[in-house]
Structures are given as C-alpha cells and as structure tokens.
Amino acid sequence: MTYFLVYLLLMNIITFIEMGHDKGQAKKGGRRVPEKRLFMFAALGGGIGGWLGMRVWRHKTKHTSFVIGMPLLVALNCICVILIAIYM
C-alpha cells in the first residue's frame, strides 16, 4: 500500500508540474505539452495534481474538455483508490 501511495503522490506532482510548465510555455510561445499527455497523467492517478494545476496557474480553465474532464478524472481516481484499498 505504501508503494501505491508514493505512486499517487508522484503522479500528482508530475501532473501539477506539467500543467505549470505548459502554462509557462504558452506565455513564452514555446513548445507546448500535448493535451493528450496532460490527460494521460491525470488518468494514471494525477487527477488532483491536474485539477490543482488548473486552479493555481489558471490554465486550461476555458477548455470545456479540461473543466469537465479533470474533475471526472479526480472522481475516477478516488473510486480506484477506494476499490484498491478495499481489496488490498
């Protein structure tokens, strides 16, 4: 269970950092992080980090796919964590 919690923590940190990096690149006109990658990290356990990244950096807040998708992925992540905790 400890490894699983460390995994979740790392995924959320990575997703949060990626959101911040993408916002920075958007401001500079640099190479952006693909939306597919942001959603992949969120789906693999980093939903809270993605949602927090949206709020902290006010990034992707006008994209319907992110406004709806990130909270749904947070809910999915929570359901998965609960199910894993029950069956471990």
Automatic annotation (TrEMBL):
Pfam families according to UniProt: DUF1294
Source domain of life: Bacteria
Swiss-Prot/TrEMBL keywords: Membrane, Transmembrane, Transmembrane helix
TM annotation in the entry: 38-54, 66-87
Name the UniProt record assigns to this protein: DUF1294 domain-containing protein
Annotated source species: Paenibacillus silvestris
